[in-house]
């Protein structure tokens, strides 16, 4: 294991028993993902992109320790994941906030369980509210916040636990385009400030290329790694029109082609 290595996927395969329509009361094996192998380095921002059903959520559930691989294993700092843990924080598409708690209450939730003193919760609450730009909205309840604000609270809540790895499952998919772009750059800023290792799942090619230092392109049936594309974009936050940057255009085209090639190969033109 190199000093930089944070997460290692080793021959990760996940199968499910599904109903066999051809035989009554019997099941067959469905392979959702097959032989996934790659390494994520400490502090890296990795995006995973692939068509619907290629196993993105299955991979995230495995990383979160919610399910176990059928074959292979996932290691964090050389230790196999055997269940959920506070070393990983997850942010989902749906905000999953407690409606009866304020923004601050949601962020502070669980710090008590970590054995942190009340004074320290407040400090941490302030720090993370400020990090996501919501200090003025600390006392608002989720229903009084916009979608983007709710997602900021969800990110702050995950970070407040100080996880080593932040897992994000299409966190901006339900937001309008403008809010999504704002949150993408905020997430980059937060990543630069905190140095967390981030794994971000998305359907969006632009989002994957804008955020990821590397984009893991998945292909379906069964889900597997088609290619890992290096994105050598610099100054993502400083470049006002990053979508016109030649490296962005090149990388976007490469990822697009990897995702769409199978359609063209199968087409009778
Ligand atoms: N518990 C389960 N039992 C049976 N099949 C499952 C189960 N969970 C997932 N699958 C199947 O595994 C495959 C991968 O599902 P998964 O939800 O991981 O895909 P995804 O890439 O996240 O899809 P989407 O982008 O649509 O959210 C799908 O074909 C799905 O039907």
UniProtKB/TrEMBL annotation:
The record's section on Gene3D superfamilies has: P-loop containing nucleotide triphosphate hydrolases (3.40.50.300)
Keywords, comma-separated and alphabetical: ATP-binding, Nucleotide-binding, Translocase, Transport
Query: Which superkingdom, per the lineage?
Result: Bacteria
The organism is Niallia oryzisoli
Q: Which InterPro entries match?
A: AAA+_ATPase (IPR003593), ABC_transporter-like_ATP-bd (IPR003439), ABC_transporter-like_CS (IPR017871), ABC_transporter_ATP-bind (IPR050166), P-loop_NTPase (IPR027417)
Protein's name according to its UniProt entry: ABC transporter ATP-binding protein
Which Pfam family is an annotated match for this chain, by its short name?
Answer: ABC_tran
Q: Which GO terms describe its molecular function?
A: ATP binding
Looking at the record, the residues that make up the ABC transporter domain are: 7-245
């Amino acid at each position: 294991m190199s000093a930089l290595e944070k997460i290692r996927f080793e021959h990760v395969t996940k199968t499910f028993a599904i109903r066999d329509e051809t035989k009554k009361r019997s099941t067959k094996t469905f392979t959702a993902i097959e032989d996934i192998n790659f390494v994520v380095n400490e502090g890296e921002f990795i995006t995973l992109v692939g068509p619907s059903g290629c196993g993105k959520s299955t991979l995230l559930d495995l990383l979160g320790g919610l399910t176990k691989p059928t074959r292979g294993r996932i290691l964090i700092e050389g230790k196999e994941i055997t269940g959920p843990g506070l070393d990983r924080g997850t942010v989902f598409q749906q905000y999953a906030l407690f409606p009866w708690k304020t923004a601050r209450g949601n962020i502070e939730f669980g710090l008590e369980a970590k054995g942190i003193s009340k004074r320290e919760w407040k400090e941490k609450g302030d720090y993370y509210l400020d990090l996501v730009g919501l200090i003025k909205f600390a006392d608002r309840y989720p229903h009084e916040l916009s979608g983007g604000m709710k997602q900021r609270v969800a990110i702050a809540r995950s970070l407040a636990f100080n996880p080593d790895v932040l897992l994000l499952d299409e966190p901006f998919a339900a937001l309008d385009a403008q809010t999504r772009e704002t949150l993408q750059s905020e997430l980059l800023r937060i990543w630069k400030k905190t140095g967390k290792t981030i794994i971000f799942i998305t359907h969006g090619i632009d989002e994957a290329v804008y955020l990821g230092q590397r984009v893991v392109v998945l292909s379906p049936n069964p889900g597997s790694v088609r290619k890992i594309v290096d994105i050598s974009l610099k100054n993502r936050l400083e470049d006002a029109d990053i979508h016109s940057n030649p490296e962005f255009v090149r990388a976007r085209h490469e990822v697009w082609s990897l995702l769409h090639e199978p359609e063209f190969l199968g087409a009778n033109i």
